[in-house]
From TrEMBL:
This is Lipoprotein. It comes from Vibrio ziniensis.
Amino acid sequence: MLNRQILLPVTRRLPQLLFLLILTMTGCGSMPQLVRNLGKSDVDFVMDVHAKQQKQMLMDLTRKLYVRNPWQLKKSSGMTIDARMAQIFGTYNTIEIPSLVFAELNGVTGIDAILLSFDENFQGDRVFAAMVGLTEMLRRSYNHQQEFFILDSLNEQALYNSARNIEIFVWRLYQRRDSKGELFLLSNRISDSGYDISFDRLFSKMVMVQDMMALIVADRTNRSITKVVQSVAQLAFLPVP
């Protein structure tokens, strides 16, 4: 008879072993959700929640920026906010994510697209450029995944760097101006009812999610994170491998 101490750990791993067997035959994308869940640890479920939160916040930010900068949308004839959202995010519940390389942005994406949104020579939709860049940068920190499994491995440094890049983006959004002294993109506003800090709150949550993900991955892999201590105003965007 097999030793019970040997048999128990194997039995506990049966759901994961079954998942790996199914994965080799079908691939994750075609699996029902209940089957995909067999390949997840508790940490993977937490990471899934954070990734979904970040996607929703990116969608909220896109809509808010277009509401504050409606003239940017008009630079593309017949374009709507919903159409832009579909270009960037695809269908909300889908696992597959659309490519974020567009001819109207000169084929650049990620950090280069963010930089394009603050380039005075760029005549296109600055909200689209900024959100394509920000979304692609964050996707890279997640290895272009929206769902995580036991065998998946993220880079804690990439997650940390992406959090700092959000802070750098926010500083540029609030401070960068064209040669006429006008902000490239509007965000927070002062009205008779007071100062609107909804953008501040949203960005703070986005940074918090990335920092939390970085800590989770660092703890899972027992690796350390190299911290950046320079002023945000002096920083260039950090690499997200």
